[in-house]
Amino acid sequence: MMDNKMNRRGFFTTVAKIAGIAAIAPAALNAVFSSEANAQEKRRGSAPAAAGGGMPMVDPNDAVAKAVKYVEDFKKSAESKGNHCVTCGFYAKKEVKAGKEVGTCTIFAGKLVYANAWCASWNKKA
Ligand code: SF4
């Protein structure tokens, strides 16, 4: 009889502990993953998107941009022949910045290009 009470108490204590761990575990894991994500952002040298940092624009003077003759306005390059990022297969609209549409480009990972920019890697959107 006494053993039954002890066993029941022991069972409920164990269940309570497991339930407590189950409730705490997701929060603990979130904290770990969140701090790891922040550490990765710091290592990359960019602000987390949640902090409003957003992605930077491609600098026309950086080495890759120069190599592909990137211009922020396709009209400034005769080579563009009227083509620009918005009609390029590598472009994906992201947002509007200061009244100008910007998007991601496969060849400029982690940066944004203007919808009206152009580079020599332009490839007609399918
Ligand atoms: S590859 Fe396409 S989207 Fe990227 S910069 Fe060149 S023209 Fe624009």
Short description:
The chain is of the alpha+beta class.
Structure write-up:
By secondary structure, the chain is of the alpha+beta class. The chain has a single domain (8-114), classed as High-Potential Iron-Sulfur Protein, Chain A, CATH 4.10.490. Helices cover 38% and strands 13% of the residues. It is built from 2 helices and 3 strands. It has helices at residues 2-44, 63-67; strands at residues 91-97, 100-105, 112-114. It has a 3-stranded antiparallel β-sheet with strand order 1-2-3, with no helix packed on it. The longest helix is centred in the N-terminal third of the chain and has 43 residues, at 2-44. It is elongated, with a radius of gyration of 27 Å. It starts with a helix and ends in a 12-residue tail after the last strand. The chain binds iron/sulfur cluster (SF4). Iron/sulfur cluster (SF4) binds next to loops. Specific class of high-redox-potential 4Fe-4S ferredoxins. Functions in anaerobic electron transport in most purple and in some other photosynthetic bacteria and in at least one genus (Paracoccus) of halophilic, denitrifying bacteria. It holds the Pfam family HIPIP. InterPro entries: High_potential_FeS_prot, HIPIP_sf, TAT_signal. Keywords: 4Fe-4S, Electron transport, Iron, Iron-sulfur, Metal-binding, Transport. Residues 52-126 form the High potential iron-sulfur proteins family profile domain.
